[in-house]
């Protein structure tokens, strides 16, 4: 079946560092969503991307819709301890539908 | 975005029993969905809850095991039937606001443990 691979699987970084993570697939997607999930909580939507090449920011977060439509990237600048959590990408399988498949997740740990 | 609540927030159940999870939204939404998140795993779509008609299930999920109701545009229930330890997961309700937007928002989840 279709799969979204997220990289890295987990990472430890120092507070203040920039973070990059990505999602890749062999399939083409029409929309990308990026979420953050804290322990014991539901995922919170961070950024939505709708067009190939689109670059969108939300505070210290910036996400890009890959040109090939098979990948997406999320960057966090100047990380802080509350950035700790699991980040998921989600790709819209079929244009005009609400079906998404979710990436495997990137677990981020920030060292103060 | 809509405010989504789920009940219960967590439960511990015995195998062979059933649990009904409720999802309530503070505004009318077009689409409601149910996801499962197994321990340490990503999210998997169970079904789309259709208002006034039978839910649309994804491959690997069946109505007898996961009956879903959606009586109106703000409420849905998911029942996990005849539970086994393999059903221990977080069950999440999500909504999409409506036509022209494909953003999905999640409830806080229901953490189910089956013993």
H/E element order of chain B: EEEEEEEEEEE
- How many helices of chain A in DSSP terms? 0
Q: What's the mean pLDDT score of chain A?
A: 93
Fraction of residues of chain B in helices? under 10%
Question: Which structural category do the helix and sheet elements of chain B fall into?
Answer: mainly beta
How much of the sequence of chain A is in beta strands? over 45%
Q: Show unreliable segments of chain A.
A: none
Biggest chain-to-chain interface with counts = A-B, 22 and 20 residues
Distance between the termini of chain A: 40 Å
Q: So how many helices of chain B?
A: 0
Summarize the model shown.
The complex is a heterodimer of chains A (112) and B (115). By secondary structure, chain A is mainly beta.
Description:
- The complex is a heterodimer of chains A (112) and B (115).
- Chain A is an all-beta fold and 112 residues long.
- Chain A has strands at 5-7, 10-14, 19-24, 32-37, 44-49, 55-58, 61-65, 71-76, 85-92, 100-102, 106-111.
- In chain A, the strands form two sheets. In chain A, strands 2, 4, 5, 9, 10 and 11 form a six-stranded mixed sheet that branches. Chain A has a five-stranded antiparallel sheet with strand order 1-3-8-7-6, with no helix packed on it.
- The model of chain A has no long low-confidence stretch (mean pLDDT 93).
- Chain B is mainly β and 115 residues long.
- Chain B is built from no helices and eleven strands.
- In chain B, β7 and β8 (75-80) form a beta hairpin.
- Chain B is globular, with a radius of gyration of 13 Å.
- The chains are: A mainly beta (112), B mainly beta (115).
- The interface between A and B is medium-sized, with 22 and 20 residues.
